[in-house]
C-alpha cells in the first residue's frame, strides 16, 4: 500500500464484475495466514469486497506484484528459540476516513519465532489515541491468555507474566491506575480485563519506543526502509 493513502468505498468506478476481485482477496486472506507482511493491505482491501472499484482493484494488483517479487519469502523459526512469550500491541487512531474507527494490531513471539498476529478494525469509535491503544492492548491480552493456556496444555511451564510492549504511555497509565474513572468509564470492560491481566500476572506492561514497535507494521503502510526493517524483525525472509 502507498504511504498516506486512505481508501474509501466511493473511490474510483464500480467494477462491472466484482467476482475476480473477491476471488483474489479470498486467496490473499488465505495467504496472509503465513505472510504477516500483507496483513494490513489485505485487511483494507477486504472491506470493499461487496462493491469494489477500479481504485481498489489497482491497489490489489500492487499487492500481487509485491508477492511476485517476494515469492521466496517465508516465516523463519529458529531452532534455538526459547519458550517465552513476548507481545506487541499498537493502534492507528481514527484511521478509517469513512467512520473514524481505529485499527488495532498485535504480534506475539515465542522466543524468536512469530506465532500470532492480527490486524482488526475496532468496533467502536475511540475518543483519543490512548483509548485506541488501550483497546488494542485488551485484544492482545485475550490472545496472550489463550496462548498461555495452550502452552500449558502442551506441558510448557508458564510461570512468569508475558511481556506486553506498547508505545503508548497513556494506555499503560490507564491500565496501571484504577482511579482514572473518567478515562475508562466508556471502555469499562476492556479496562477491567487488562487490569485483571496485570493483577493476575498474566501480562506485564512495558513501554517500547515507536521505532521499535513491531506491531506498527500491521497498522499502516511503511517506507521501503521501514518495510525491510520490519521484515527482518518478524523473520519474514527468503531462504538462506
UniProtKB/TrEMBL annotation:
CDD domains listed in its UniProt record: RNase_HI_RT_Ty1
Q: Which domain of life is it from?
A: Eukaryota
Supply the name of the protein. Reverse transcriptase Ty1/copia-type domain-containing protein
The species this protein was found in = Aegilops tauschii subsp. strangulata (Goatgrass)
Top-down, what is the taxonomic lineage of the species of origin?
Eukaryota, Viridiplantae, Streptophyta, Embryophyta, Tracheophyta
Amino acid at each position: 500500500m502507498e504511504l498516506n493513502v486512505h481508501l474509501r468505498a466511493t473511490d474510483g468506478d464500480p467494477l462491472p464484475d466484482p467476482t475476480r476481485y473477491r476471488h483474489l482477496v479470498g486467496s490473499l486472506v488465505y495467504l496472509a495466514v503465513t505472510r504477516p507482511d500483507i496483513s494490513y493491505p489485505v485487511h483494507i482491501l477486504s472491506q470493499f469486497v461487496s462493491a469494489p472499484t477500479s481504485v481498489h482493484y489497482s491497489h490489489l494488483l500492487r499487492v500481487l506484484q509485491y508477492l511476485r517479487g517476494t515469492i521466496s519469502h517465508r516465516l523463519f523459526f529458529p531452532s534455538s528459540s526459547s519458550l517465552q512469550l513476548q507481545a506487541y500491541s499498537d493502534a492507528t487512531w481514527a484511521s478509517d476516513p469513512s467512520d473514524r474507527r481505529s485499527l488495532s494490531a498485535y504480534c506475539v513471539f515465542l522466543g524468536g519465532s512469530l506465532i500470532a498476529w492480527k490486524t482488526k478494525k475496532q468496533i467502536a469509535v475511540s475518543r483519543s489515541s490512548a483509548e485506541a491503544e488501550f483497546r488494542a492492548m485488551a485484544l492482545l491480552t485475550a490472545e496472550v491468555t489463550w496462548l498461555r493456556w495452550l502452552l500449558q496444555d502442551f506441558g510448557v511451564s508458564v510461570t512468569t507474566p508475558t511481556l506486553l510492549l506498547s508505545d503508548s504511555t497513556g494506555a499503560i497509565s490507564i491500565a496501571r491506575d484504577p482511579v482514572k474513572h473518567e478515562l475508562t468509564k466508556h471502555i469499562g470492560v476492556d479496562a477491567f480485563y487488562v487490569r485483571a491481566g496485570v493483577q493476575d500476572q498474566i501480562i506485564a506492561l512495558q513501554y517500547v519506543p515507536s521505532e521499535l514497535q513491531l506491531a506498527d507494521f500491521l497498522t499502516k503502510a511503511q517506507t521501503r526502509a521501514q518495510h525491510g526493517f520490519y521484515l527482518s524483525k518478524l523473520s519474514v525472509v527468503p531462504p538462506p
